[in-house]
Amino acid sequence: MLTNFDLEKMVETSDEWIRTRTGIVERRIADPDVATSDLAIRAAQAALESAGMGAAELDLIIVATVTPDMFFPCTAAIVQRHLGPTMAAFDILVGCTGFVYGLAVAREMVASGVYNRVLVCGAETLSRITDWEDRRTCVLFGDAAGAAIVGPVEEGRGILGYSLGNDGTNADSLKIPAGGSRMPATQETVANRMHYLMMNGPEVFKFAVRVMVESSEEVVQRAGLQMSDINLVIPHQANLRIVDAAAKRFHLPYERFARNGDRYGNTSAATIPLALDEAVRAGSVKSGDLVLLSSFGAGLSWGSLVMRW
């Protein structure tokens, strides 16, 4: 665990500054020998146990991550190798929106009849791409993983609809500049710290609030519902100020919004499955409840999804 008081000793910041601007108090950091696939495997095993299933019953593994173990093979392949049975496996790279994208893809795979059970993981070790000398960004991120299994359900249950999108005109607002084909790794890129996450915070903030509200309203309308019908909103836990700003525009009581970013920080594709799991375990989600997931991320991308639990 890395607290705000720990960060005070690392960069020029303070607990009060971090709390006021982000709402974050602490975040989890993976041990040096723990990779993203290790976290994904643990989350996958927990999801299988919760569902009362064995890995042999899965047909497909999707891992949403921006911190893969390596460029290739995909992290999903490493998860599959550990779980044992041979099956299809691939990664999704759309940043914090990845888990919602993964659920949408899994839903269509199952609905088509091609696959019966799909494991969707959101897993990140953002501490590996965080510039711990940049006080603007290092206070935001943590490591985590969460997973869910998508399969056939009775009519009127499960995923009722989703809305996905991307606006590439602002893609440079959230990126890692070097390491890919555009700017391969060199001594110069390493020396200039260009392999770390860089973000235009104000631009991302404005984008986030707008698209979370717009895409949520769109998907709720597509499902033939009203926003007031939603029992629980699980937003991407990037910054509690963003969550609060979106909540005001939804015109819903604050108690209908899941919040755990104060304890974990922004864990990218893992924030929504992590918050969903905590809500289910706490009894905040009951059978028949309508749950709205809403996220934004690199790209700049967005995704909202509504389901009946």
Poorly predicted regions: none
CATH architecture tag of the largest domain: 3-Layer(aba) Sandwich
Give the full name of the CATH homologous superfamily of the largest domain: Thiolase/Chalcone synthase
Tell me the series of helices and strands, N- to C-terminal.
EHHEHEHEHEEEEHEHEHHHEE
Oligomer: single chain
What percentage of the residues does DSSP assign to strands (E)? 15-25%
What overall form do the CA principal axes indicate? globular
Number of domains: 2
CATH topology value of the largest domain: Peroxisomal Thiolase, Chain A, domain 1
CATH class descriptor name of the largest domain:
Alpha Beta
Count of beta strands: 12
Q: Report the major sheet.
A: 4 strands, mixed
Total of helices = 10
**N-end to C-end Cα span:** 32 Å
Helix content range: 25-40%
Nearest-integer average pLDDT: 95
Structural class: alpha/beta
Q: How would you describe the overall organization of this protein?
A:
This protein has 2 domains: 2-150, Thiolase/Chalcone synthase (Peroxisomal Thiolase, Chain A, domain 1, 3-Layer(aba) Sandwich); 158-308, Peroxisomal Thiolase, Chain A, domain 1. The chain has helices spanning 4-8, 15-22, 36-51, 75-83, 98-111, 187-191, 201-222, 240-250, 261-264, 271-281; strands at residues 2-3, 26-27, 60-64, 88-92, 118-125, 143-150, 158-166, 174-175, 198-199, 232-235, 290-297, 301-308. Helix 3 crosses helix 4 (75-83). The protein has a 4-stranded mixed beta sheet, with helices on both faces. Strands 7-12-11-10 form a 4-stranded mixed beta sheet, with helices on both faces. Helices cover 34% and strands 20% of the residues.
